[in-house]
Fold this protein.
Amino acid sequence: MSYETIKVETTGPLMTITLNRPDRLNAMPPLMADELGSAFYDLGDARAVLITGEGKGFCSGADLAAEGRDSALTSKGGSHRALQNHYSPAISQILRAPVPVIAAVNGPAAGVGCSLALAADFTIASKKAYFLQAFVNIGLVPDGGSTWLLARAIGRARAARMMMLGEKIGAEQAEDWGLIYKAVEADDLMDEARTLAEKLANGPTLAIKMMKQNLNLALDGTVQQVFVQEAEAQRQAGDSNDAKEGGMAFLQKRKTEFKGN
């Protein structure tokens, strides 16, 4: 499938998605949100997804004025429709992806771009990158799931700081807060992100999928619900070929060769 605003490349079990509007620091029009959703809908044989941005930015936020959509900025309910129909579904699909998602944040991640980065299971950022929720400066509120993502990642006080004061949070501070997985030197970003993505892509895919489901339940459910879901997940994982391979590799003292089933 061809795309206008993103590039998609699949190498073995790893799919790489590159946001491709470098002249706009990869600001996200509704079309880009739709194309992200399509890419995640059609994963094919991919067992992990790596997302990054072309050029100097990761994603500088929503771009409702792109491609003649300036009426969306001024028309009553334009932003609401864009969120309901484009941005929120895309972020939701990434959160619910059946494979691990890695974000390599190479520059500014602002607004919905921040949401996109934090929706990944692992977020690795260049030390030159930063995370920003600047909505307060124009009298708006964070969206694209940012409120949920920030509050759970860094707690109420720090989430309020980002949302109500509109402060830029550098990659190293983001790592210190637990907002992201890791901050690395800019020249090392893609190598580190690909190494991690390939490790996950070659891992026990079914088990990782269910780990994601269990983590999501742990954020919103009760411990009793988690007990039940963990047990069911363990039953399914235990019946998988990857679990059999893991057991044999352990007994034979060799490296595992997971196939993702």
